[in-house]
Amino acid sequence: MKIISYNVNGIRAALKKGFIDWLKAANPDVICIQETKAHKEQLDLEIFKNAGYPYHYWFSAQKKGYSSVAVLCKKEPNYVEYGTGIETMDFEGRNLRVDFDDISIMSMYLPSGTNDARLDFKLNYMDEILEYASELRKKIPNLVICGDYNICHEEIDIHNPKMKGVSGFLPVERTWLGKFIDSGFIDSFRYKNPDRQEYSWWSYRANSRANNKGWRLDYAMVAEPLKDRIKRAYILPEAKHSDHCPIAVEID
């Protein structure tokens, strides 16, 4: 199974930049999308069906044009879970899970901490999602949580490791991501590529992408029971529909 995760920074904008042609060429079995910034009523859903994804699910923020996640599937899942049931997380449309026979896949969009209020919101979300994921794995051990975590874990994951005072690379955030992994997840990209310095997000400022001054904020976190089934994990920087690029994991 080929799983792709992609923060598109607005699905409608991405569609205008050739997202569908790219999706057909990439050909994942499942694609987890973050930051769709749209409600499904605002989209022509036939284009996803015609691209080979007749099963598509959307969980949107109450606020229009903000946050929101989606999952597109080639095959119909057995079950779809919209949100987490935790109101402080769900009103911004940040979690959507699809369950298949032998694997469950979540699209997650962890908040950014752009100011003090949002950092507090982010830290609270981090605490709640760690507890939620730990409980969920007791019921669903074969779990993959893909998405934009808005955190660089180690110095290798950021172009300038001196940026320790900026949200996304704060010590408290990095420590939390370590705890998340230690709770029973594998950072699939780092597992398969221990020494590769690659990024999944670049600021629109200062020609950052052309100069490869990036951050690795997007992860396919794979639960421990699936460890031996991780075939490949990689980043797709050639896709340029967003300030992020897609990441992928292939699981036997």
Considering the chains and any ligands shown, give keywords for the structure.
six-stranded mixed β-sheet; alpha+beta; 252 residues; 7 helices
In short:
With 252 residues, the chain is of the alpha+beta class. It contains seven helices and 14 strands. The radius of gyration is 17 Å and the shape is globular.
Indicate the low-confidence ranges by residue numbers.
none
| DSSP helix fraction | 25-40%
Biggest sheet: strands, sense, closure? 6 strands, mixed
The average pLDDT is 97
Radius of gyration: 17 Å
How large is the count of helical segments?
Answer: 7
Q: What is the overall silhouette?
A: globular
Q: Helices and strands, in N-to-C order?
A: EHHEHEEEHEEHEHEHEEEEE
* Strand segment tally: 14
Main structural class: alpha+beta
Terminal CA distance: 6 Å
